[in-house]
Each structure stands twice: as structure tokens, then as C-alpha cells.
Amino acid sequence: MIEAKNIDFYYGDFHALKNVSLFIEPYTVTAFIGPSGCGKSTFLRLFNRMNDLIENTRLTGECIVDGQNIYDKTVKVDRLRKQVGMVFQKPNPFPKTIFENVAYGLRVNGINNKQVLSETVEKSLRQSALWDEVKDKLKKSAFELSGGQQQRLCIARALAISPSVLLMDEPASALDPISTAKIEELIYELKKDYTIVIVTHNMQQAARISDKTGFFMLGELVEFSDTKKMFLNPDKEETQNYITGRFG
Fold it and tell me: pLDDT tens digit string along 4-26?
């Protein structure tokens, strides 16, 4: 379960998010759409506190994951990031083997048992629909994989530490159509076990894979509803204009 309550966020004096509130149900795919610079990626990154890494930012309101306000002073950020995985726009494998890329998070958390590592790496690669393609080259460099395979490897790396939530910031924008289709199929499968939140510029992609869609503009959440309703019968004129290509 993810919930935002009256979120305002600032980069210095710039008011990037304005009174955003929403509720995301477990085991669903939620997509955020909107023009560049509208706040959707900033909002996504709040849920594993990636914006903490940026100087001179300020947040008011509450971000709740599994019943806890993750900006409470008692929250340990490293533990939060085990709970909330992140996949970025461009594939970012580490300069390690395929096996060690997936095992990285486990090793960081002190897990070095060979059997546990092997079982978790295989499970994560199977979940990311990559196992059959790489099972015979686990000791090869991750950089030998194609772009689409690298992105699925990054998804496997995120899954290996057993998160409950998976955040994806335009995970297919750097990929070709065939790789994009594989990522979309994967997202559809993964929602059986994870709550997934995705930022995408591709409205057709949002329509294909998400259960709910939020439309952001100028830092405001203009509309948030079932995806089918959003694309067929939006409540707000701004949403209609964006979806039909009249602006954005």
C-alpha cells in the first residue's frame, strides 16, 4: 500500500509538487503521465527517498508505504530501499558479471551463502524473464548483454532483495520496440507479486499496462483514475487535451 498525503516539494525556491494526494492499491500497476518537467519523476522518487540525494530540497506532507510515513526520523533509508526497489530510465548494470549484478544487494546485506545466492539469482532472473537467455553465461560481463537484456537484469537486481514495491522511471524509453514489449509483458507478470509504479512518456504504454493512471501538469496531480476511464472519458479538460495531443 502506498499513500501520499498533501505533498508539497521544493527544489530551493521552485515549487515542484503542489498539494499532491493519492492512494495506490497493492498488486497493481500505476502509471504517471504528463509533459516533461511536470513533477512525475520527482513524485516517483519520493517513495524511496532518492530526492534526499539532491541538495536544498524540502518536503511537507506524508509519504506512506505499508502503513509507515517513510520521512519519519525513525526510518532507516537503507532498509526502506530494500523494501522499495527502483529501475531507472537507462539500464545501469554494474561493471561485474551477470551473476554478481543480481547478487550485489544480497552481498551488501551480508548474505554470502553460496546456495542462497545461487537460488536467489536464478529466481530473480526467472522473474525478470532473463534466465533462459543468460543461464549459460552468468560469469560473463553484464555489458555483453543487449540494452533490453541489461534493463531486465537491472529489474532482476531490484527483485533480488525482495522489495514489496517496484518504482520504474521510464524503464523502456531507451529501448527498441521488441525490448519494450518484453518489459511491458514483464511488468504485467510482476504485478502478481509487487506493487508497481511507473513513469512513462508513452501514453499507449500507460494504456496497455496500468490499472490506474495519474496525469501531472505544472506540479499538480490534475487527475487520477482507472486507466480505461482516463483514456476514454477523463474528467478534466486538461487531461483530454493532453491525451488527444492538443498540447504537451
Answer: 999 999 999 999 999 999 999 99
Please state whether the predicted TM-score (pTM) of the whole model is above 0.85.
yes
Res 247: pLDDT = 66
Q: Is 138 left (phi over 0), alpha (psi -120 to 50) or beta?
A: alpha
- Nearest CA to 222 among 205, 235, 208? 235
Task: Please give the Cα distance from 241 to 131 (Å, whole number).
Answer: 42
Distances 170 to 40, 117, 145, 206, 215 between C-alpha atoms, Å? 11, 29, 20, 11, 15
Identify the structural domains of the chain with CATH numbers, from first to last. 2-243 (3.40.50.300)
| Contact between 41 and 20 (Cβ < 8 Å) | no
Residue 17 · residue 219 · CB < 8 Å: yes
Rounded mean pLDDT of 201-230? Answer: 96
Q: Which helix (H) or strand (E) holds 9?
A: strand 2-11
% of the chain exceeding 70 in pLDDT: 99
